[in-house]
Amino acid sequence: MNQDLIRKYNVPGPRYTSYPTVPYWDKSELDYNLWLESVRKTFNATNRQGISLYIHLPFCEDLCTFCGCHKRITKRHSVETPYIEAVLKEWKLYRELFSEAPRIKEIHLGGGTPTFFNAGNLKRLIEGILEQADLAAEFEFSFEAHPNHTSKDQLKTLFDLGFRRNSFGVQDYDPKVQKVINRIQPFENVQRVHEWSKEIGYTSISHDLVFGLPLQTMDNVKRTIELTNSLRPDRLAYYSYAHVPWIKGLGQRGYDENDLPKDEEKRALYEIGKQLFDENGYVEIGMDHFALESDNMYQAMIEEKLHRNFMGYTTNNTKLMIGLGMSSISDSWTGFAQNVKSVEEYESIVHNGKIPVFRGHLLNEEDLVIRQHILNIMCHFKTDWSDPAMQFEGLENVHARLEEMELDGLVKFSENGIELPEEARPYVRNVCMAFDLKLLRSKPTTRIFSMTI
Q1: CA-to-CA distance for 35 and 39, rounded, in angstroms?
Q2: Contacts 24+ apart (CB under 8 A), 138-141
Q3: Are 429 and 14 in contact (CB under 8 A)?
């Protein structure tokens, strides 16, 4: 990697799991009825192809200090039942909007720690979701899991319910790094749940690794990746640690910023990871992800069917994604809405018969066009505006904003489009920022995003 280019382009920027990004959603109060109408309209138009569900299960027994998720730290498992009751009630409120049985194409359980919940409660949750619903012909159920808190019973229960993909949060195997991020997790724990998953029959097992963590060095990253490759997961996520203590508070203030690998050093950690993954048969997918050629995410990339949403990269491009649970975000394609972030407030609003959204954004025509361009770039590293429907006011200025990146060999322009060469992929967020009119019109006066590279 060109170190001068890293220094030049390593600036704060969005990760683009949505457009507009959350800080640039409409600041006025979300019109509740218009949001419900956008859900109903998209459902009626697309239910035959299927919808997605994201279910947020927020509880964790311990606080991992690197974590940027919305969570509740507790060791009291008595919280499981009332929370599941609230999620099923929220799903019932959404179902009442629908004119027919929903056809579910995708379910993802995120957290927090979904495997905080015992097998019986996970079964109750999924059976309650699937009651009075149909399944799409090719559905995909997946869940995130903490290796220290995942039992064979949980894995078997979810498999029997239709789950075939799981992802284990590994982060790093070095004891010093694990201690400072409060994630003590020996390799043997990961190996155990990975081998159980293969034995049970899971067809896509993913491991999540993070680079740029405090006290991380080249040697311990190599060791982490070598151990990971020894298990040969089907997919890998290799995330850049997002240090945003001004947003996430005390958790990310548990170490000094001087403990973090800096620009070139941090990017070198990614490059060695990419090299080792490549040597072991993994193909880079989009941004942060790698997969074996046998995995369906690789096939989705080849067929240009890859999609990106609040769950990250997915092989399912559904126009309607319903987010259930505290802090979940729903996407009706023409609108976003986020649930309240407190467990108590979430449960109270749901039991009072209202979908617990507190903020959101309804997309206008300009938003929809730019959203598609950014999706194209994030998923396929190219976009095209030869179709008049893909043009927007101000498009002519995109070239000017990307002129320096073009001179640096990071963007190639055609008459009606752009493409990123392979060596430019680390800069994909910078390219998307040239299309982001919300960001350009209202540049933040304080730092609200992590660094792009």
Answers
A1: 6
A2: 138/105, 139/50, 139/104, 139/105, 139/106, 139/107, 140/105, 140/106, 140/107, 140/164, 140/165, 140/315, 140/316, 141/106, 141/107, 141/108, 141/165
A3: yes
Among 362, 395, 412, which residue terminates a domain? 362
Burial class (CB in 10 A: 0-12, 13-18, 19+), 215: middle
Question: Hey, is 288 helix, strand or coil?
Answer: coil
> For the segment 153-196, what is each residue's pLDDT rounded down to a tens digit?
999 999 999 999 999 999 999 999 999 999 999 999 999 999 99
Consecutive H or E run containing 274: helix 263-279
Which of 320, 338, 362 is a domain's end point?
362
Residue 50 near residue 105, CB atoms below 8 Å: yes
CATH code of the domain covering residue 225: 3.80.30.20
246: confidence class by pLDDT, cuts 50, 70, 90: very low
Q: Which domain holds residue 346?
A: 21-362
CATH of the domain at 403: 1.10.10.920
Q: How confident is the model at residue 254 (pLDDT cuts 50, 70, 90)?
A: low
Q: Are residues 273 and 414 in the same domain?
A: no
Report the DSSP beta bridge partners of residue 451: 12
Confidence of residue 101 (pLDDT cuts 50, 70, 90): very high
Q: What is the pTM of this model?
A: 0.93
Residues 394 and 276 in one domain: no
Mapping DSSP to helix (H, G, I), strand (E, B) and coil, where does residue 145 land?
strand
67 and 137: one domain?
Answer: yes
In a shared domain, residues 151 and 77: yes
Give the pLDDT confidence score for residue 68 in this predicted structure: 83
pLDDT in tens, 354-365: 999 999 999 999
- Assess whether 40 and 156 both reside in one domain: yes
